[in-house]
């Protein structure tokens, strides 16, 4: 039985299950009828014995005919089964193909997949790959610390003194509004030449590093220039690392000042809008710069918070949330006289993408009212942090308070909860421009090992919501070598175009001292990172020996997949990691929960389970047997798993040593042989290094043939296993043509094509002309019919796929066909395997007519039975198609064949779209079971803005109440408003900016979303029985029976007379879940098992907490502010002081 899916929104009864209740549910007609369940009184007619009832229920308008008896319909079912089996035996060639394999037994060997050895070898290979990156990381981090320690700080350093390649220079030169064009760049920026490099998917220069500096940081500041000066020496270390390991990809140093220096040099990917990239907000930097965090954010929403200040607070909280990773836990609350959570989360929750989205949406609903009550806010926060009954990070604990100011220091609260040990750090943020005394806020931070920040305007938000990481890094720096541990990140999208990567990170510490005998510096310099592309890790896994349904996967300590065939995000966001839980990548059940927990705990294991799997086209569910084997990848946070079906324990390995035979079989790949031997599609695999890939299979085959004329299958540049198996399968499928297909007349049995597909990568379609309408994937391992046939016994029907919103099938030129396929199982020396799938393509119209005849009361020679006015006859699917509906439905609930001509163009649709009343009855009678799941990797078209025609939402428009509020005028808020107006004009809508667009991905047209998927599969009912759909005066009789050795359900029913039962319609189409997936408020109450990093650095007795942001703040001069704004309006912007808040000890 499937595990119930989580539901979108609150729990509620299943509408489909409750939509239809029949008093007649137990009143089945004929032998094998089900007994009624207890329920309300039933109508008298329904209490009659079935045999007495049937004559009373003749179809209206057809008084001479009665609904068929059960034994009659069982007879029809047997005729259908025999016809299908007969055609497949003659044309499918299963037995003949078995004989062909046995006749060619000397051309291949049977090899065994030993799961434990396989998974241990792959884990060892991945460990070796990552270890080489670790050694490079350590060389870089050690060198950086030594270079910085030897560097002499220069107060008078100038831009023209520094020579470097500015990665954004080319884009800025093309942009007349860029910083350098406005000011006239003084820095000596290198102009480089680049060459295309396929490893980087980019143009690179291996002789230089590149530098990226965030847009909101002034390149000419003393801090930045000194940073550029000493980091230049890293260039040689980067190059030496590459010399030792040519497979290295991006090597990056992310500085705590915001500077990024990376190697090799490549131009920065220019964004479509403003570039908001800041290395300190990248997932890998955050993970490397501090230990995990338990954070409570409290926001002052008292009445003194003006409209603009509240907006600044909301944006600040959202930016703060973006500095958290999946190793962190967080909650957000607002307070005035009392505190309350802003969302449905009542305790700390994991700072994953979906939870943060809930917070961000909830924060926008905060409203300012009441009086300031710091005590209520801090007591709430401390209570949250002291709750030990929940899952949390259990490392750094902190409170982040955003306020516009106040006088209360709440010392009694700190004495009660935090002193003398001060295990919770307090960070305070003074938001907006005002004249309040900030001393209490400074005192709170300084007496609780935190830091005080000011956010007077938009420009200060991003900088000041991430500077707290410097404070959290102090214990790491003071711990020294003990904290120098490489961590590996979640999967995320590389900003420079590598695709999905993981990054090894290592913190870099400031080893300088201010003077002889002075305390050790406690600042983190930054984080060193080296990328590893997921594709490089995938290359270490077995490609094709595991079969179509075998695979390797890997997960991290959060249970997120690093490798998995279902890891296919449709959109990626620069700012967030790609987090797909193992239990969301597969269909969740208790066995998989147990496997996941064991892997997270770093254990080895093996388990055979029965589980549900989703088909590749996501239309079907199969219950299958799978063997899971797993081991930890040492020296990392990852664990590796291997999944094998029992039939993939063995595989074929071709041994074509006879070159004459190689040439003979190879000739059957030439298009000149297709007319007589059938069309051949070859799987687009990497057979040789120099083989040019192409999405067009004909072109790919042409490239393959041209390459094979230059090299042999035994060439060192080629994958001999893939090539030999491909050529062997070419010859074996050709023998199938010769022995079976060529001498058969397909038209006699109304077949459009016959076909065979193999593990070796061959799909042969006969005759050649049928290839014109062949739409299946040329890679058998990626073809849904192939994978399902391996997992199912018997014949698998696959109707053409069509959506309810699309136009019906075009039934012209007999081109519409239904695939029927089955696996070829070999038994060789007691070893069983399934190396191929064979099948036929039925002509839809011809088989629909044949279906009518087979489900009728005549033999092949008889004419349709006529029933006179004085005789009694049973209805059948041919003569009485105006009164009787007869259909074949597959195991997913999709229409395959119908006796109704007008339904032929609906073949392939979910049957509820054809006859909702009947499909609901089948579901309620347990012929079908439903499985709901969620696709967290979907992409949705952006929603149209809801404020068309309104002013830009990023600009605050004061209300009349604001104008009448004296405090609003006497504070500097009015000038802040003016500044915000200018920002709004420049940045369009900074507050509401789309992160994907802001981060600079011009390709993004869709946004990530959660889609709810519903699949149906056969339930527990295998018997044949009749039932009545009770709809008052519109009751319908129906009969349903599974066809043995196939995935078909045969259904015969009276046609509906009215639509009283049409209310309950089952949905199969994928739908957008309005709450972005299962209700997050419910999910956090039962969090999935996870483990955080095993070492925590949140305390050091020698930490100096005196640097806590005591710097005096002064409001800007009114005259100066007016002058600045007028200059901005005139288009002559002066250079403001940089928003780099360097601590005094940042002077390097």
Describe the structure.
With 1148 residues, this protein is α+β, with helices and mostly antiparallel strands. It has 34 helices and 41 strands. The strands form ten sheets. Strands 7, 8, 9, 17, 18, 19 and 20 form a seven-stranded antiparallel beta sheet that branches. Strands 10, 11, 12, 13, 14, 15 and 16 form a seven-stranded mixed beta sheet that branches. Strands 27-29-28-32-31-30 form a six-stranded antiparallel beta sheet. Helix 11 runs antiparallel to helix 12 (353-363) and helix 31 (973-987) packs parallel to helix 34. The longest helix has 36 residues, at 115-150. The radius of gyration is 35 Å and the shape is globular. The model is unreliable at 1-63, 945-1004 and 1111-1148 (pLDDT under 50). This is Calcium voltage-gated channel auxiliary subunit alpha2delta 2.
């Amino acid at each position: 039985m499937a595990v119930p899916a989580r539901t979108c929104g609150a729990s509620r009864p299943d509408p489909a299950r409750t939509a239809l209740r029949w008093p007649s549910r137990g009143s089945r007609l004929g032998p094998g009828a089900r007994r009624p369940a207890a329920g309300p009184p039933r109508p008298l007619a329904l209490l009659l014995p079935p045999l007495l009832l049937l004559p009373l229920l003749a179809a209206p308008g057809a008084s001479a005919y009665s609904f068929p008896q059960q034994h009659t319909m069982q007879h029809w079912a047997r005729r259908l089964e025999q016809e299908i089996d007969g055609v497949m035996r003659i044309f499918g060639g299963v037995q003949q193909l078995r004989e062909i394999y046995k006749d060619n037994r000397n051309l291949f060997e049977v090899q065994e997949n030993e799961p434990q050895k396989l998974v241990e070898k792959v884990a060892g290979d991945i460990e070796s790959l990552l270890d080489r990156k670790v050694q490079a990381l350590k060389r870089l981090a050690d060198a950086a610390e030594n270079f910085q320690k030897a560097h002499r700080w220069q107060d008078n350093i100038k831009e023209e003194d520094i020579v470097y390649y500015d990665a954004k220079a080319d884009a800025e030169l093309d942009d007349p509004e860029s910083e350098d064009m406005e000011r006239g760049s003084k820095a000596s920026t290198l102009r480089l030449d680049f060459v295309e490099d396929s490893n980087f998917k980019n143009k690179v220069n291996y002789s230089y590093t590149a530098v990226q500096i965030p847009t909101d940081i002034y390149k000419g500041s003393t801090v930045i220039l000194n940073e550029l000066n000493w980091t230049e020496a890293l260039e040689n270390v980067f190059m030496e690392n590459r010399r030792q390991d040519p497979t290295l990809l991006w090597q990056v140093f992310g500085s705590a000042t915001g500077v990024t220096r990376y190697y090799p040099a490549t131009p920065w990917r220019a964004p479509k809008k403003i570039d908001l990239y800041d290395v300190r907000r990248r997932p890998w930097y955050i993970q490397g710069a501090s230990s995990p965090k338990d954070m409570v954010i409290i926001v002052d929403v008292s009445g003194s918070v003006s409209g603009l200040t509240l907006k600044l607070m909301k944006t600040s909280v959202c930016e703060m949330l973006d500095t958290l990773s999946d190793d962190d836990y967080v909650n957000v609350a607002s307070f005035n006289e009392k505190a309350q959570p802003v969302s449905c989360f009542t305790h700390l929750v994991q700072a994953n993408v979906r939870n943060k989205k809930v917070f961000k949406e909830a924060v926008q609903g905060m409203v300012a009212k009441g009086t300031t009550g710091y005590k209520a806010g801090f007591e709430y926060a401390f209570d949250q942090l002291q709750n030990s009954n929940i899952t949390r990070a259990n490392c750094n604990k902190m409170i982040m308070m955003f306020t516009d100011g106040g006088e209360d220091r709440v010392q009694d609260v700190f004495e009660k909860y935090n002193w003398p040990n001060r295990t919770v750090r307090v960070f305070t943020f003074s938001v907006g421009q005002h004249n309040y005394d900030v001393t209490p806020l400074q005192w709170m931070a300084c007496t609780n090992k935190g830091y005080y920040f000011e956010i007077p305007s938009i420009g200060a938000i991003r900088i000041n919501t991430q500077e707290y990481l410097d404070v959290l890094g102090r214990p790491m720096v003071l711990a020294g070598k003990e904290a120098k541990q490489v961590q590996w990140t979640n999967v995320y999208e590389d900003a420079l175009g590598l695709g999905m990567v993981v990054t090894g990170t290592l913190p870099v510490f400031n080893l300088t001292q201010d003077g002889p005998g002075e305390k050790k510096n406690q600042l983190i310099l930054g984080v060193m990172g080296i990328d590893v592309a997921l594709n490089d890790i995938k290359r270490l896994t077995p490609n094709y020996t595991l079969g179509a349904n075998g695979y390797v996967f890997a997960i991290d300590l959060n249970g997120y997949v690093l490798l998995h065939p279902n890891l296919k995000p449709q959109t990626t966001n620069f700012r967030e990691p790609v987090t797909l839980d193992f239990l969301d990548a597969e269909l969740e059940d208790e066995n998989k929960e147990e496997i996941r927990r064991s892997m997270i705990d770093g254990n080895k294991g093996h388990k055979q389970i029965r589980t549900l799997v989703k088909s590749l086209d996501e239309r079907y569910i199969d219950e299958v047997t799978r063997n899971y084997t797993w081991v930890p990848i040492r020296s990392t946070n990852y664990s590796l798993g291997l999944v094998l079906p029992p039939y993939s324990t063995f595989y074929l390995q071709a041994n074509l040593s006879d070159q004459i035979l190689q040439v003979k079989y190879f000739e059957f790949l030439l298009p000149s042989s297709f007319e007589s031997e059938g069309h051949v599609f070859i799987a687009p695999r990497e057979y040789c290094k120099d083989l040019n890939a192409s999405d067009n299979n004909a072109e790919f085959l042409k490239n393959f043939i041209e390459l094979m004329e230059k090299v042999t299958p035994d060439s060192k540049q080629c994958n001999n296993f893939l090539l030999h198996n491909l050529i062997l399968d070419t010859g074996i499928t050709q023998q199938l043509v010769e022995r079976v297909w060529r001498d058969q007349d397909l038209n006699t049995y109304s077949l459009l094509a016959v076909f065979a597909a193999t593990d070796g990568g061959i799909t042969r379609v006969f005759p050649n002309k049928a290839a014109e309408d062949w739409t299946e994937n040329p890679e058998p391992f990626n073809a849904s019919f192939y994978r399902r046939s391996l997992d199912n016994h018997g014949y698998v029907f696959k109707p053409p796929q069509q959506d309810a919103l699309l136009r019906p099938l075009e039934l012209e030129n007999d081109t519409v066909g239904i695939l029927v396929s089955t696996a070829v199982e070999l038994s060789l020396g007691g070893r069983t395997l399934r190396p191929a799938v064979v099948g036929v393509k039925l002509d839809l119209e011809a088989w629909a007519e044949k279906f009518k005849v087979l489900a009728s009361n005549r033999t092949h020679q008889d004419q349709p039975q006529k029933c006179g006015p004085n005789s009694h006859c049973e209805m059948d699917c041919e003569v009485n198609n105006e009164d009787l509906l007869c259909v074949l439905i597959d195991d997913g609930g999709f229409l395959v064949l119908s006796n109704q001509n007008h339904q032929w163009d609906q073949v392939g649709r979910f049957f509820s779209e054809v006859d909702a009343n009947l499909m609901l009855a089948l579901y309620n009678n347990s012929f079908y079971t439903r499985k709901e799941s969620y696709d967290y990797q979907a992409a949705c078209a952006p929603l149209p803005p809801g404020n068309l025609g309104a002013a830009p939402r990023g600009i605050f428009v004061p209300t009349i109440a604001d104008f009448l509020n004296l405090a609003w005028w006497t504070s500097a808020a009015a000038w802040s408003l003016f500044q915000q107006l200018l920002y709004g004009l420049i940045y369009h809508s900074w507050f509401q900016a789309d992160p994907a667009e802001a981060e600079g991905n011009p390709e993004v047209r869709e946004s990530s979303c959660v889609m709810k998927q519903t699949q149906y599969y056969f339930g527990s009912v295998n018997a044949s029985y009749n039932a009545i759909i009770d709809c008052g005066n519109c009751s319908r009789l129906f009969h349903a029976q599974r066809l043995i050795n196939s995935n078909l359900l045969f259904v015969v029913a009276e046609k509906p007379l009215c639509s009283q039962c049409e209310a309950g319609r089952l949905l199969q189409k994928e739908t957008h879940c309005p709450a972005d997936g299962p209700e997050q408020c419910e999910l956090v109450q039962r969090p999935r098992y996870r483990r955080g990093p095993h070492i925590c650095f949140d305390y050091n007795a020698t930490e100096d907490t005196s640097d806590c942001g005591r710097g005096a703040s002064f409001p800007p001069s009114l005259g100066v502010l007016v002058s600045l704004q007028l200059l901005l309006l005139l288009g002559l912007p002066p250079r403001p002081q940089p928003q780099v808040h360097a601590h005094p000890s940042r002077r390097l």
